[in-house]
Automatic annotation (TrEMBL):
Superkingdom assignment: Eukaryota
Source organism of the structure: Chaetorhynchus papuensis (pygmy drongo)
Domain named BTB: residues: 203-382, 440-533
Organism placement in taxonomy: Eukaryota, Metazoa, Chordata, Craniata, Vertebrata
InterPro entries: BTB/POZ_dom, P-loop_NTPase, SKP1/BTB/POZ_sf, Small_GTPase, Small_GTPase_Rho
Bias kind Pro residues: ranges: 170-186
UniProtKB keywords: GTP-binding, Nucleotide-binding
Protein name: RHBT2 protein
């Protein structure tokens, strides 16, 4: 006895239930366990087939030998293992129990066949799913009472005992859809710009320090990190300025005049204090150089406007560029010119921009400034912080100067926020350069047009691009000839076109649209995936997989699944799209999207098969095998449901025939005032009259 004896009411009869277990080993004598038993619940385990085999060969014969009149109820336990994850179950059972194999789990019809052969009712239970236990104990007392109807006492008290109820099949819970978590960004994203500065791919800018030290850099990195560099690289270095130098005393006078014109434009757009920013921060080499009445070097906090100024000339409108003197335009630069220089990577001559820096700029601090412009970070252990701040003032990189001030004031922890703001501002500038095609040196030829890009950013963010542009491929040495009107032509249409040889890489990407490629480029530039209304979900995984970008593949999977789920919530039929996405995802290694599509098809298997029978038959053998194994509802449930409905109809038909065979009861109403000596005919008449009156 394991519980206090509960009581139940069956057909207006109070019944006390007591539960006993046969705890003896199979080879021991258990005759004492069957004594005075009213009903025997014979349980077996669904996973091992030997358990059901022992029911017929050992347990049922033993029960009938020691307790012949007791009714038997066959119960299959551990029903939940039919739909459970057997790998997880076996890991939990290891090493105390033998692992369960999928082919060892018995289907429901096996237990029902044995029960039919033995002539006993059959139920299935699961304690984990809380299914079937109540059905067993609700049907055990009626089974015991029905077996005692031959006794006089029970025959008089049990008028209409219920028959064993039919058990509805257990529907497994619908499996939840696979969760696609937001992927972690690549770990080497922050290190790549610094590596690009140390070991540059084909550069397009040469920064000359002290007339002999050359530092190779890239326009796109410098211009998106510093407004001063952005204005510098957009200067007009056309041939007209050189021609006008002949009437003004040579090249220097012409350059000076052109610089003055540009200064007037800068004053008109940005104020007259634009050129005085660099003069606000001068340092002394040491404390001895400062006079006795002068203060020691200090830093003044300042903020940058962060404005990315637009280009006054398009690529084809600037004409041929030569050079310009910058001594009157900025204290940081001496001159800028275009010349043929040797590429440090390919050792081939190509057109590059050579910028000569001021003689006061030292190589060590300047490299620290360049590292900030590439990565947004400043090492706290830098020695020449004052020189770094001086260069930052000359280049108008005021955020870097604030970082130096924080380090000197022992407040370096505040530099993290400055770095975050640097990346946000730079991301916006990079997007603007991508949209306008500024400083672009790569052209992707797509199905619906072309889109310009920037090779340094592509190389630093994509190994596939780095291998293509740096290896012996056709794309790494393709030049494009651009034509544009010469600057200075009148509006009457007399503009002369000039031919410019610009080093532009052309890459053909078939089966790719501009909207899709623009999303890929924004990811490569900023590390973020942004959607647009014209972006087609089905065209995202192929380029992401082609460029070997697993993080972008995961982002496209998340974006696609979110769109499909939103469409399903709006009652839009997505079954056809899911079938297309399944083949696309499996082909392009989008495994999370493929798992989600498989789950959707499995949980809507009947509807999908009814709508797209040919597509389902054309699926690969692996997919069809997966569908048969994981479809919901499972096959065994559909068979059980069909058997249950047929048995239910038969039971209803039997009940109807049973009620039809019952004799109809006749109600007789006797008149209390009638005398016993009255004749039957008069009594019948009185009864009929009473009946009519009532």
């Amino acid at each position: 006895q394991v519980l206090p004896p509960p009581r139940d009411v069956v057909d207006d009869v109070s019944v006390s239930l007591r539960l006993w277990d046969t705890f003896a080993p199979p080879h021991k004598d258990r005759r004492f366990a069957y004594g005075r038993s009213d009903v025997v619940v014979l349980c077996f385990s669904i996973p091992p087939p030997n358990s059901l085999h022992h029911v017929k060969t050992m347990w049922y014969p033993e029960i009938k030998h020691f307790s012949p009149p007791a009714p038997v109820i066959l119960v299959g336990c551990q029903l939940d293992l039919r739909y459970a994850d057997l790998e997880a179950v076996n890991r939990a059972r290891r090493p105390l129990a033998r692992p369960i194999k999928p082919n060892e789990i018995l289907p429901p019809e096996k237990g029902r066949e044995v029960a039919k052969e033995l002539g006993i009712p059959y139920y299935e239970t699961s304690v984990v799913a809380q299914f079937g236990v109540k059905d067993v104990f609700d049907n055990a007392p009626p089974a015991a009472l029905i077996s005692r109807r031959h006794l006089q006492f029970w025959k008089s008290h049990l008028r209409n005992p219920p028959r064993p109820l039919l058990q509805a099949p257990f529907l497994p819970p619908k499996p939840p859809p696979p969760i696609i978590p937001p992927p972690d960004p690549p770990s080497n994203n922050e290190e790549r710009p610094a590596h690009l500065l140390e070991d540059p791919p084909p550069p397009d800018v040469i920064l000359v320090l002290q007339e002999k030290i050359k530092i190779y850099a890239h326009k796109i990195y410098l211009s998106t990190s510093s407004s001063k560099f952005y204005d510098l690289f957009l200067m007009d270095l056309s041939e007209e300025d050189q021609q006008s130098a002949a009437g003004h005393g040579g090249f220097g006078a012409a350059v000076t005049a052109a610089a003055e014109r540009m200064l007037h434009q800068e004053e008109r757009h940005h104020g007259r204090d634009f050129l005085l920013r660099a003069a606000s921060f001068d340092i002394c080499e040491s404390a001895e150089e400062a006079g006795p009445g002068q203060r020691k070097p200090c830093l003044r906090a300042s903020t940058s406007d962060g404005i990315l100024r637009g280009n006054r000339y398009e690529n084809g409108e600037r004409g041929l560029r030569r050079g310009r003197n910058l001594s009157s335009w900025s204290r940081a630069f001496t001159s800028i010119q275009e010349e043929m220089a040797e590429d440090p990577l390919t050792y081939k001559s190509k057109l590059m921009v050579v910028v000569k820096m001021d003689a006061s700029i030292q190589p060590g601090p300047f490299r620290a400034v360049l590292k900030y412009l590439y990565t947004g970070e400043l090492d706290e252990n830098e020695r020449d912080l004052m020189h770094i701040a001086h260069i930052a003032e000359l280049l108008e990189v005021f955020d870097l100067r604030m970082m130096v001030a924080n380090i000197l004031n022992n407040e370096a922890f505040m530099n993290q926020e400055i770095t975050k703001a640097f990346h946000v501002r730079r991301t916006n500038r990079v997007k603007e350069c991508l949209a306008k095609g500024t400083f672009s040196d790569v052209t992707f030829v797509l199905d619906d047009g072309a889109i310009s890009a920037h090779k340094p950013l592509l190389i630093s963010s994509c190994d596939w691009m780095a291998a293509m542009f740096g290896g012996p491929f056709v794309e790494s040495s393709t030049n494009e000839v651009r034509r544009g009107p010469r600057e200075g032509g009148d509006s009457s249409g007399d503009n002369q076109e000039v031919t410019r040889f610009v080093c532009v890489w052309q890459v053909a990407l078939p089966h790719t649209s501009k909207s899709c490629m623009r999303a890929v480029l924004e990811y490569l530039y900023t590390g973020q995936f942004s959607s647009s209304p014209d972006l087609d979900d089905m065209k995202l995984p192929p380029p992401a997989n082609r460029l070997c970008l697993p993080h972008l593949v995961a982002l496209t999977e998340q974006y696609t699944v979110t769109g499909l789920m939103e469409a399903a919530q709006m009652m839009v039929d997505i079954d056809g799209d899911v079938l297309v996405f399944l083949e696309l995802a499996q082909f392009h290694c989008a495994y999370q999207l493929a798992d989600w599509c498989l789950h959707h098809i499995c949980t809507n298997y009947n509807n999908v098969c009814r709508k797209f029978p040919r597509d389902m038959k054309a699926m690969s053998g692996e997919n069809q095998e997966y569908f048969e194994k994981h479809r919901w509802p499972p096959v065994w449930y559909l068979k059980e449901e069909d058997h249950y409905q047929r048995a239910k109809k038969e039971r209803e038909k039997e009940d109807y025939l049973h009620l039809k065979r019952q004799p109809k009861r006749r109600w007789l109403f006797w008149n209390a005032s009638s005398s016993p000596s009255s004749s039957p005919s008069s009594s019948a008449a009185t009864a009929s009259s009473s009946s009519s009156s009532s």
